[in-house]
Design goal:
single chain; mainly alpha; 60% helix
Length: 80
């Protein structure tokens, strides 16, 4: 996936998911999207979800690695 496009795609996928949550009232949706879109971005970047937001089978460890790599990339640290 083109990394320039990850944020808007991740936000859209996150919003779609949040709107499906029965406990998320409409006024809360933007706040929840703002909080959780980076998780979708990390998973997209690592290939753990596709462009439609469907999970690609992976381990919890691989998910954590994706999150750590996303954080490292944003902070300018090299991921080891």
């Amino acid at each position: 996936m083109d990394t320039d496009n990850i944020e808007p795609v991740a936000r859209a996928l996150c919003e779609r998911e949040v709107r499906s949550w029965p406990h998320a009232a409409p006024p809360e949706v933007p706040v929840l999207v703002e909080r959780y879109w980076p998780v979708y971005a990390a998973k997209l970047s690592a290939g753990l979800i596709d462009d439609e937001g469907k999970d690609v089978p992976h381990t919890v460890e691989r998910g954590l690695q994706a999150w750590e790599a996303w954080l490292d990339e944003r902070s300018g640290r090299a991921h080891v």
